[in-house]
């Protein structure tokens, strides 16, 4: 295999592994070798056809898929959506849901199996998402997002959609149910501290995304969908004051 072709395949493999959140340690465990060997192989040194196929499979690719990805340049992942893209998503609940699920790395087939959405409807949504330059449709029914996984939703359309459709569902859930995992606390913060808190919540979201990715690759148990809502706002102290007054009396 010519050196230039090996380099292109290794570059495509590194991108694919990174997009799926697969670390060198994960690949080493999968292949039963040390991290140093993985780094050497991904640099194109000592990489056999068998090992290339093994690593490609870890990234959810066949060798043919991997070769195809080298034929065209990979798109730079957008870090934010355009207003038009958010507007299109906010106008179509199914479109937005399919986008969020595939952005999270879950196969679109799970939308059919877990939620009973007709395959044709999901296929139509995927075609729309590709036309919106939000995903690429790849061979074998695979989907490649064209935006970063940790994208921040800050424009008005998606926030309005959350307020109108998702927020009522979140608030209707019984978060006191035994299976609920939750924490709660109160803090006294300056405006600067509140801004830092917002960044910590965003960091938590990225860590949860990495957790979900690792669980998808490694778990042999049945997985269920979980709803996670992290929020912070100025505390309405009126009710707390009344409770404290009653306790004092």
What is shown here, in short?
The protein is mainly alpha-helical and 249 residues long. Helix content is 58%, strand content 3%. It has twelve helices and two strands.
Q: What does the model show?
A:
This protein is mainly α and 249 residues long. It folds into three domains: 3-69, 434 Repressor (Amino-terminal Domain); 83-145; 173-238. The protein has helices at residues 3-19, 24-31, 35-42, 49-58, 63-69, 83-90, 93-103, 109-115, 119-131, 156-172, 191-218, 238-248, and strands spanning 135-138, 142-145. It has a two-stranded antiparallel ribbon. Strand 1 and strand 2 (142-145) form a beta hairpin. Helix 6 (83-90) packs parallel to helix 10 (156-172) and helix 7 (93-103) packs across helix 9 (119-131). It is globular.
Layout of helices and strands, plus pairs?
Layout: H1 3-19, H2 24-31, H3 35-42, H4 49-58, H5 63-69, H6 83-90, H7 93-103, H8 109-115, H9 119-131, E1 135-138, E2 142-145, H10 156-172, H11 191-218, H12 238-248
Antiparallel strand pairs: 1-2
**Uncertain regions spanning at least 5 consecutive residues:** none
Number of strands: 2
* Spatial gap, N to C terminus: 84 Å
CATH topology of the largest domain: 434 Repressor (Amino-terminal Domain)
Helical residue percent? 55-70%
The radius of gyration over CA amounts to 22 Å
- Total helix count? 12
The largest sheet has its strands arranged as 1-2
How would you spell out the order of helices and strands?
HHHHHHHHHEEHHH
- Bulk shape: globular
């Amino acid at each position: 295999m010519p050196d230039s072709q090996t380099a292109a395949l290794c570059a495509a493999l590194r991108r694919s592994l990174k997009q799926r959140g697969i670390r060198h340690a994960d690949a080493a465990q999968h292949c039963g070798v040390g991290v140093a060997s993985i780094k050497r192989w991904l640099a194109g040194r000592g990489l056999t056809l068998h090992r290339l196929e093994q690593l490609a499979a870890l990234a959810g690719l066949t060798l043919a898929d991997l070769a195809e990805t080298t034929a065209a340049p990979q798109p730079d992942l957008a870090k934010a959506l355009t207003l038009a893209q958010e507007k299109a998503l906010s106008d179509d609940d199914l479109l937005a849901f399919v986008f969020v699920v595939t952005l999270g790395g879950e196969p679109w087939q799970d939308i059919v199996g877990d939620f009973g959405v007709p395959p044709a409807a999901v296929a139509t949504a995927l075609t729309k998402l590709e036309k919106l330059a939000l995903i690429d449709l790849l061979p074998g029914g695979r989907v490649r997002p064209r935006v970063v996984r940790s994208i921040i939703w800050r424009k008005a359309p998606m926030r309005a959609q959350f307020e109108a459709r998702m927020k009522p569902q979140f608030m209707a859930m019984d978060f006191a149910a035994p299976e609920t995992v939750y924490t709660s606390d109160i803090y006294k913060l300056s405006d600067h501290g509140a801004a830092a808190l917002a960044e910590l919540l965003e960091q938590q979201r990225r860590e949860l995304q990495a957790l979900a990715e690792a669980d998808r690759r490694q778990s042999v148990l049945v997985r269920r969908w979980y709803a996670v809502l992290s929020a912070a706002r100025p505390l309405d102290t009126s009710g707390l004051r009344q409770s404290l007054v009653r306790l004092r009396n």
